[in-house]
Amino acid sequence: MNLSLLYKYPCVVFAFALTCAVVFIFGTWRYGFSDFVLWGAAVALLAVALFPLQRKHESYGVAQRKTLLGLAKDPVIYIGVLLLAYMALQALNCGRPLMYNVTAGRWMHGAPPWPGVPSSVNAGAVWRMFFSFAPAVAILLCIRHGMTSAGRRAFLALLVVLSALVAVWEFAGFLWLGGQTDDWRIFSNADHEGIWFLFCFCVAFVLWGNGCLRKFPVWLCRLFFACALLDLAGILVIRAPTALLLVWCAGLPLAVATLAVVWPVIGYPRRMASMAVLGGLLLLAFFLFARNGLNFLGLGLSTAGKGTLSQMVFDGRAERLEVAWKIAKDNLMFGAGAGNYPFFSELYWPAKRIADFPLQGLAASNDFAQMFAEFGIVGLLIMLAMAVFFVPPLLRRWPGSPPARRRLFVVFVAGVGLVFVAAWVESPFRSPPVLVSVVAALACASGFLLNPQREDDLI
Predict the structure, then answer these.
(1) What is the band of 61 on the pLDDT scale with cuts at 50, 70, 90?
(2) For residue 231, what are the CA distances in angstroms to 24, 162, 204?
């Protein structure tokens, strides 16, 4: 990767600018600026048509027609529009009255204005989810049709640099405010921010490994390594329990696996430096575990009046899953409405735990269960249909890729997969920055494999 890529592939710049807007606007739930993000998504899609990938001896008009034809033939654009239309219909078909069901012996929401179609109780919550998914779909199409493998890696590089800058900001707030950083954070939710840092930590290490394999300049490899360490520092500073648990137990082992992949191609000094840093982090984890037991992952959270790590991560999960399943059963086909889980959960929350509802009833803390409850079978099928189209590019590139690149790709997928692991006990995909970043990373995954089509003739 070099800076000329930003001039060579303008879609990288537009997609990254849209990602920055999502992080800094939606990270703190500033939905009053939603129009700005939607216009940014439209501009990113327009950039795909205005700045097509152009090969040597190919006119601009021919390249543009190829790009537009590729967009028209891409099922992802139609599935994305269908998903956004599905959520828009949920928002428009709002207004299910609250009534008492004598047969069931409990309060429940009645039929919507248009029975038999997707609906919701609170349209505002649906639109907030709509504003989260719209930029994700735009960036996905921008990556698929406006970036080559090098451009995709450049986009991921910019993303991890952004995360490192956010981590520096968090660390500065930690030092300036004496550890009380709630009013300083870029993200309103510390758990979401911790999982985003975890994701970028893994991606940064894979980019470092990719730079070593491809003989990138030493300064660039060091930059990726530094970004990974800054992301780890960000996790430690905000002390999000799920992110801490995963970074110590899975993130660091994946970093060691990356080192193992690039071990044959890096020199002795870089081997020793990398081993010293990763070994020091593993020794730190072992020391904290020996001193504090399993609660070492929380780094003293038990003294902050919030309970032990196990209580913070797992308390109330069984009730939340039960509530999500009940909501899903009552709204099986079309769901309760995107983002509408809080407006249904109080009706299903166990009476013995009603005092805990303000803290634990607003989210299922399991994205899979909550998505099922809010989108229903139809909505989940639309999402799965979109996910299917991430696979063909990987299958095309896998056979011809060298073993080292394959192993690095597996590490990358495992790192992104940690977000899906966290989704079993948290709700990271409720956060627009996490959603956009993970979708973009999955679209960029093929950039770590060898492209059977030549890219060196691109203008």
Answers:
(1) confident
(2) 17, 10, 9
